Give the backbone structure.
Amino acid sequence: MGKFDGFLICTDCDGTLTDSNRKISERNAKAIKYFQENGGLFTIASGRYPNYIDEFCADFVPNSYIVACNGAVLYDAKKDEIVISHRIEKGIEDLLCYVFENQPSVFSVSVCSERDEVLHFYRKNYKVPKQWEFIFDGAVPVESEKDIRELCKKIDKPVVKIVFCQDEAHTLSNCSKLNEVFADDFDFIVAWNEGMEALPKGAGKGQMIMEMKKLLPEVHTAIGIGDYGNDISMFRFCDRGYAVSNAPDWVKKEAHYITVSNDEDAVAVILEQIEKDLL
């Protein structure tokens, strides 16, 4: 029996587990290892593809399922298997055309399967800041709704999410509008300053963690840690939700607790507090 038996911790990566240099601190890595060695389950809940965890294999190895693609996918890294996949079954063309015609601040769109990108296009002649020019690499320029509908014919894999990049000033309003117009078919989340994503209706990190708990009957407490809009569902569905202090105010107000920033070993601080609470 371990002191952390029954605890499941799911953390976001960028801006939460990793610091501003996108590294896992030594203190965080040691705290995670200690937590796992004493019975706790520790994993990530990320907007990235399942194999993103490979970047951190030198720092820690999740000892439970991985929540990927912002909750559309549950992945077993040991078996390299997709355990659960929520897919967008309809309405992709209409959504993409609506965004192209009605949200001119959106300059890039990526249609994603469980493990990779299946379609990537951008608004032709759109002037983006220099730091964003890389996002057009390998993408197809489009000028009309007709171009988009032709591209959609090339989608040859199940779609689990769609990523929209836009001018930061419009991300929140664009997301709000899409949740209004397409309320019956998709859930839209703000994933970072310039990014919003369309997920299958009812999908999300928090919802997937609840599905994971059904596979892990030994878990009595699920804890979510995050920093942005795509983490809010963890705060709502988990037994405890922690926002790091570098999260925006509109995200922090959704959390049960606010901890230190990602540059101050937030994950370690939370794990240490859990241990203190058990004493």
